[in-house]
Amino acid sequence: MTTCHDGQLMILLVDDAPTNIQVLNETLKDDYRLFFATSGSEALRMVNQAPPDLIILDIIMPDMDGYEVCRALKANAQAQNIPIIFITSMRQQEDEVVGLELGAVDYITKPFNPAVVRLRVRNQIELKRQRDLLARLSNLDGLTGIPNRRALDASIDREWRRCQRSRKPVSLLMADIDHFKSYNDTYGHLAGDDCLKSVSSSLLQTLERPGDLLARYGGEEFMALLPETDAIGAQLVASKMLQAVNDLAMPHAGALADEHVTASIGVATMQPGRTTSSANLLEAADQALYQAKQQGRNRVCVWSPPADQHA
Ligand SMILES: [Mg+2]
Question: Which residues lie at CB < 5 A from ion ligand 1?
Fold first, then answer.
């Protein structure tokens, strides 16, 4: 949800009649940060610059009417989830139907009843807050609080396409806690959960760039997606991760040689091309992880393309 520096929610009022804007401003100014537009095109420009949390939109305006503004907003991926409340007059009952069909969430009628306006706005703001929260929660892993597999899959796809356009490499790290099943068997599942949380935060601390993403992929498996990162950069991050898990020094009697919690990490770097997809990157990181396990765990292995397949 968009908030100003002072934490207030932003509402955009769009009406060609300054008196209407004045009345709504008086009604809402104590609770929200208000912005004003007196034409449809001005409103669209302002939404592009700083998307508000809610738009109150007059229907009858010269040049571009409220319906057109609504259609344009619903066609814009950045703006389509912003709730729109239409302003109608008592004589325009049929307008309300059209507006709701276009995706408006509610309408308020002129002349304004301040108490009703405040309630309708508050209800819609609360609904949006809950929708945003739900969307965020459905992309987070419940135990560790970091993005989950669903979020990672979406990000890999997006970053793959982005790096394809910018002709930059993408790297993916797949980390798996060694002998985790025996950790659970030895210390119990609650301790296992604590272990996952500790490993998760230690891995998170090794990521320094805002575009990097750490996700819990499932079980004791974590993934780090590093857009615009070459093989050398990715190996550096992987080494830091390996060290970070070792530095936790969590006792693990079932880990045979090391006797503390360790992880194995597979690294894959690809330049997105026409014949490859993000699924190839996942597969490559998985292969490298398998190698790290085979070679004795607590190590980083780097995927290298087959000799006959020059990237
Ligand atoms: Mg008007």
Answer: 16, 58, 60-61
